[in-house]
């Protein structure tokens, strides 16, 4: 199991304060969604938690250890990371691309073991890309590529998974499948964190939501406690229909808040 915590975390991107004094603790067993408007600091937060964005102040700990004391390989074995909008440069087959997820566990010049190959196969099955295994990844549609990159993250086999906008480019059916997969991963004992823009999916599938606005953590808690009409108006500038429906809560933005 992996835990991640930060205290007083602040990050500047150039002159812009991207994060300001964020305190939080993340533990296994829940699907945690990070939400907020464009530019709220969502991607910066997860990059800072992974040591990919330099903190100007505050501290991040992974399993109680200061992030600065962990090498990149150790972090990669503990936390699989799927950034948003990845560009593929090499014409690899889908199967070979997914197999790159095993790299943190391999030594120099090592080949995949039978166990590694089985993990890759399972990752492709879970992300619904087995039928694409022999296709060239650069020739896939945007949605197909997104699922392949998710499979690569799953192939790491890490006890924690952080994904940034995993629903981008996916059709509605695959959005439902991916959210179900992430929830199952979390409820199976993993730490799973997802940056999301779809408030309906976040409300229905996440156990906990972190709402960011202008680099600050505005709210942290169960979806229906975080996604109130007042907060949606203040943070997103929208009115919304909020109700309990069959299978979970329903959040439907209906319009812009009118200026006084």
UniProtKB/TrEMBL annotation:
| Keyword line | ATP-binding, Nucleotide-binding, Translocase, Transport
Q: Which SUPFAM superfamilies match?
A: P-loop containing nucleoside triphosphate hydrolases
Source organism, top-level taxon: Bacteria
The ABC transporter domain extends over 4-239
Q: Which family does it belong to?
A: Belongs to the ABC transporter superfamily.
Described by its record, this protein's role is as follows: Part of the ABC transporter complex HmuTUV involved in hemin import. Responsible for energy coupling to the transport system.
> What is the name listed in the Swiss-Prot or TrEMBL entry for this protein?
Iron complex transport system ATP-binding protein
